[in-house]
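About this split. The held-out portion is used to measure sequence recovery: a designer receives only the structure tokens and must propose an amino acid at every position. Recovery is the fraction of positions where the proposal matches the reference. Here is one held-out target exactly as it appears in the evaluation file.
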């Protein structure tokens, strides 16, 4: 999805520096958002969508696939949560 952000920015005629300055953040911070190493706050993501005139809600959508380390996603996030909430967790540890 982040390639979409980069493509939209370039098609709108913005550089990373110009859009970052409009947002009030550094170019490197914006580059990290575009590269996927940082996630923008809700406020910042809404401002990016406004600047790029993007109306759909999928610009910063996160897929529920496997995390980068290859571990399966569980309903509970930690082993401790899993032990104490097995009734609500649908996946085995």
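Reference sequence for scoring:
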């Amino acid at each position: 999805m982040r390639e979409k952000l980069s493509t939209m920015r370039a098609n709108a005629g913005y550089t990373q520096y110009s859009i970052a300055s409009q947002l009030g953040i550094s170019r490197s911070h914006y580059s990290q958002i575009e590269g996927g190493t940082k996630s923008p706050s809700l406020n910042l993501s809404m401002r990016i969508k406004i600047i790029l005139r993007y109306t759909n809600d999928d610009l910063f959508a996160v897929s529920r696939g496997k995390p980068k380390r290859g571990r399966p996603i569980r309903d509970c996030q930690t082993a401790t949560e899993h032990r104490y909430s097995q009734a609500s967790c649908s996946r085995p540890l």
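Annotator remark: The domain at 2-52 is CATH 1.10.260.40 (434 Repressor (Amino-terminal Domain)).
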